[in-house]
Design brief:
The complex is a heterodimer of chains A (437) and B (251). Chain A contains nine helices and 22 strands. With 437 residues, chain A is an alpha/beta fold. Chain B is globular. Classes of the chains: A alpha/beta (437), B alpha/beta (251).
């Protein structure tokens, strides 16, 4: 990674100089210091440019040329746009990147601590410094996120605790998000033998131009389970980048589901590190793009310990004017013997004017492992299409049924029923929108 | 019901059907036999509108309508069913969802409302039972992992659900053991009535022991070269195509 391959980012520095002291918790010296240090770290490289291999398919030029301003406060008015009504459990809402207390409901449970990041910084400064000052950012964007963070949440689940219901995290916007960069950050720590499910929804209006940058740092300890379900329905003009870093311990389980539908540019990065014996990671996702959507999924699976298993299934559907890339990097360290790592990315092209890129990258240093990868880009199966039509389904209905089947494979194992049907419903709506155009 | 006049069909630039004539009236069962490569499957696809089957000359009229102007799905809506020689596997689409979509598409074409979920389930359960299909198979993906016989039985369940007025059955009997053959034949016979017609395309006389045709035609080199009653099929079985002076695999 060299600086010359990066785009500047000085405009963010200028914004930070102007408004940095108005960002939340600027009354806490250590927070201010952390923001400044993080900004300096970001500036060493700036925004990643298209010459950086990992960013080959994602062009952040617009962030560099545009004038994205910082957002330093938000009205605490009720905004539940995008909330999933039929999910029980705590609901934590961020509007324009700020914790929206008026709309949120946090249900208390023994052994579970769920609170807004800004409250955490104030009320638990020592612990907060510990997790924020880790100094292990692996990208300049992560550093920028720390410098500019406006809000977020922390979740601690004590050992031997099972969350009674999934936690719903909703990120929505108002007209105030116009031309703003919105940085949110969250920490999740699931201790030994515990179980947590997070449903995270990103939604915005088509009219507003904004950059939402969200970073999740998670720890899943021995025998614990963490499942994250993301739905990305940002507005048409939005840039969306979401990074998830997770350490997975011995016999621990991490699952990440995603569906990318919105945004002009979306980038989902998932970087699990399998740090304990027999750790297991499953990544599942679909991205559906048309009319200027560019979706990019970047995964980096790091197997550091023996007998770990990881499985990735990603499906892309690209219609006219849609673009996507899947980059799946798998690293197996020398000591990570008996690792089993699978990866599959299939893409369906519905129109000649659509693009799908797929790039597996396997770096294997252990000699007794099973690793597989498969990538395809193709059109709908003509024989299947004709078979359905011969039974009376017209072109649109036949296409919809086949695409639904293609996408539903990703979500079929989800046991959280309202969510599984939500994923399928969103995919079907996307398809029917296509037919209306 | 179906009138085919001077039909010429090309596939990938190759002339397959070269002036085929066929008339099928209400209530009739016709069988078409013929050597490999004669154009039997091409005829069924041409009737049912498969893309890539180019009609260069002639006409296909169904119930007085110019059939060649209609999409494959519209032909199904008009009441035509094609039983496939090789039913297609569709991973991820359950049999039951597929059938519901098919039934409701056809009803929509006919300006009928959707079938209520309860009525649909009742109907499909009774049809599956009639054709001795394990109800568990309705939940499975269309034809995925089905044996040859199960696939053909599934075709019969679909036919019985869609209740066509005209069925083209393209070698529905191939690859079946005797029990499966009996079930398929039973499915076809159930459809027989004065208002409905059937075109059976087959390689073997065997099926015609169970489904007795009103007419038998021999298709060779892109044309119907001989027509007769069921005795023609029996003669073919005994004497072979050569016995009737027909060369096999005429290019």
């Amino acid at each position: 990674m060299t600086a010359k391959n990066h785009l500047g980012g000085l405009k963010f520095k200028a914004q930070f100089d102007l408004w940095g002291n108005s960002l939340p918790r600027s009354e806490l010296d250590w927070v201010v210091k952390l923001r400044h240090e993080s900004m300096a770290k970001f500036l060493q490289f700036g925004l990643p440019g298209p010459k950086v291999e990992a960013w080959k398919y994602t062009n952040l030029g617009q962030l560099n040329s545009g004038n994205y301003e910082l957002i330093t406060s938000a009205d605490n008015v009720v905004n539940e746009m995008g909330l999933l009504e039929n999910l029980k459990g705590s609901k934590v809402i961020f509007t324009d990147g700020f914790y929206n207390k008026a709309s949120s409901t946090i249900e208390s449970q023994n052994g579970v601590k769920l609170l807004s990041l800004n409250d955490y910084l104030k009320d638990f400064p020592e612990a907060a410094q510990k997790i924020l000052n880790k100094n292990d950012d692996d990208s300049s964007l992560q550093s920028l996120n720390t410098a500019l963070m406006t809000g977020g949440y922390v979740l601690f689940v004590d050992k031997n605790t099972t969350l009674t219901a999934p936690i719903q995290i909703l990120h929505n916007t108002t007209t105030s998000s116009e031309n703003k960069s919105i940085a949110t950050k969250c920490f999740i720590d699931v201790q030994e033998n515990s179980f947590a499910q997070i449903v995270e929804i990103f939604i915005g209006a088509d009219e507003q131009n904004y950059w939402r940058h969200h970073v999740t740092e998670a720890i899943v300890s021995e025998n614990a389970v963490l499942e994250i379900y993301q739905i990305q329905e940002e507005g048409k003009k939005a840039i969306h980048t979401a990074d998830t870093h997770v350490d997975v311990g011995q016999r621990a389980n991490f699952k990440h589901y995603s569906l990318n539908l919105g945004g002009k540019i979306s980038r989902t990065e998932i970087k699990p590190t399998l740090k304990g014996l027999q750790a297991n990671v499953d990544l599942r996702g679909a991205f559906l793009g048309r009319n200027g959507n560019a979706h990019d999924v970047f995964t980096h699976m790091k197997h550091l310990c023996p007998e770990g298993t990881s499985d990735q299934i990603y499906r892309g559907v690209l219609d006219k004017g849609g673009k996507s890339s899947f980059q799946g990097k798998v690293y197996v360290a020398k000591d990570a013997q008996l690792t089993n790592a699978d990866q599959s990315n299939k893409n369906l092209i519905l129109d000649r004017n659509a693009e799908a890129n797929s790039k597996p990258e396997l770096l294997i240093y252990a000699d007794d492992v099973k690793c597989s990868h498969g990538a395809t880009v193709g059109e709908l199966d003509a024989d299947a299409l004709y078979y359905l039509k011969s039974r009376g389904l017209d072109q649109n209905a036949a296409t919809a049924l086949l695409v639904e089947a293609f996408v539903s494979e990703v979500y079929e194992e989800i046991k959280l029923e309202p969510l599984r049907s939500k994923y399928l419903e969103l995919a079907l709506n996307w398809l029917s929108k296509e037919h209306k155009k | 019901m179906l009138e085919i006049k001077n039909l010429h069909v090309e596939v990938g630039g190759q002339k397959i059907l070269k002036g085929l004539n066929l008339n099928i009236n209400d209530g009739e069962v016709h069988a078409i036999m013929g050597p490999n490569g004669a154009g039997k499957s091409t005829l069924s696809y041409a009737i049912c509108g498969k893309p890539g089957y180019e009609i260069t000359e002639g006409s296909v009229t169904f119930k007085g309508k110019n059939f060649l102007e209609l999409e494959a799905s519209e032909r199904a809506g008009e009441g035509v069913f094609l039983g496939f020689q090789y039913p297609v596997e569709i991973p991820g689409v359950s049999n039951i969802n597929f059938l519901r979509a098919a039934i409701n598409s056809v009803r929509k074409y006919r300006n009928e409302g959707e079938l209520a979920a309860g009525d649909f389930l009742k109907l499909i359960r009774s049809k599956a039972a009639e054709l001795e299909m394990d109800p568990e198979m309705l939940k499975r993906a269309v034809n995925v992992g089905f044996s040859g016989g199960e696939k053909k039985r599934n075709e019969m369940v679909q036919m019985s659900m869609l209740d066509p007025i005209f069925a083209v059955l393209d070698e529905t009997d191939s690859g079946l053991d005797i029990d499966a053959l009996r079930i398929v034949a039973d499915g076809i016979n159930r459809m027989r009535c004065p208002e409905k017609s059937i075109l059976v395309i087959t390689h073997y006389q065997r099926l015609l022991d169970y489904v007795v045709p009103d007419f038998v035609h021999v298709l060779a080199n892109g044309k119907i070269v001989k027509s007769g009653d069921k005795s023609l099929a029996i003669r073919l079985e005994k004497e072979g195509y050569a016995g009737l002076g027909i060369e096999e695999n005429v290019a």
